[in-house]
Amino acid sequence: MKFIEECKNLHIPLEEIKRKLEIKKLKEVHEGELKKHIQSVTQQMKQLQTDLNVLIPLFENLESSQVESYSKLLNTESEVLLKSLSELTS
Q1: Whole-Å CA distances, 29 to 4, 33, 74
Q2: CA distance 21 to 17
Q3: Cβ 37 vs Cβ 21: under 8 Å
Q4: What pTM value is reported for the model?
Q5: What pLDDT, in 10s, does the model give residues 64-84?
Q6: Alpha-helical segments (H) within the chain
Q7: How far apart are the first and last CA of the chain?
């Protein structure tokens, strides 16, 4: 259930959620399906980079207390993401 809630919060289409759940169930993943999933993740990472580049100038206009508050929100999620990436690529 947590996975589905996370997907809803990210506005992922139902078909994509279904595909991800099916992948989680599989013991053996076909190379084509794996490649498709990796392409999806890399596309999301590119979008994330674009979104972050939009935020940078906005942060420059905030009070330091606001920057600290928003940074904490981003840091929590970024730590989890970095850990996952590290596990995947090491």
Answers
A1: 21, 7, 32
A2: 6
A3: no
A4: 0.60
A5: 999 999 999 889 889 888 888
A6: 2-9, 14-25, 31-60, 64-89
A7: 29
List C-alpha distances in Å: 64 to 18, 70, 71, 78.
42, 10, 10, 20
Closest CA to 43 of 71, 15, 12, 19: 12
Chain CA centroid to CA 40, Å = 10
Who's near 39: CB < 8 A, 6+ residues apart?
Answer: none
Which pair of structure tokens corresponds to residue 17? 């959620």
Backbone angles phi, psi at 33, to 5 degrees: -70, -40
Rounded Cα distance between 53 and 1, Å, is 32
Spatial separation of the C-alpha atoms in residues 11 and 6, rounded to whole Å: 9
